[in-house]
Amino acid sequence: MRVLAGQEGALTEATDDSAVEAHRLFDDGRLPNSPLPVLVYHGVQAGNGFEKLFAANGWTGAWRDGVYDFHHYHSTAHEVLGCTRGRARLRLGGPSGLTLEVVPGSVVVIPAGVAHCAEESSHDFQVVGATAGGLDWDINRGNPGERARTIPAIAAVPLPKADPLGGIGGVLPRLWQS
Asked: What structural domains and CATH numbers belong to the chain?
């Protein structure tokens, strides 16, 4: 996976694990995004499948599908996406946000409130998605009137206890709870 473009004001943070990137995507006035960083993992080998790997670390309710081709965010759950086949260009943070190229083995952890969409994808593109704690997710597009409802909902989403790949000792607890 490679970062193609960044959002002005976004930060790329070094982690102890060189295969993980952390990007902070800030509120653009329409899309809330999150003070929690988006985590991007490279070259993940999920031997028994992403569903089992995610579930073993408390990220459940898995599904297999693509990624919507319109900017949207979830105000009720943190989401993880693991690419199983094909490729896509994902935009995170809204129209002027971060652009990522995802390929099999790419995993992206998206905090509640962070806008995302597939700007382009191959015909066979597929991800396994899940949410921290199996929480139900909603779909918001940054429409007028949404913020009054979604900002408090985003703040109420509990922080995961474990990284979807590395569990309690993984990168996510360190970066999200510091």
From this structure: 2-165 (2.60.120.10)
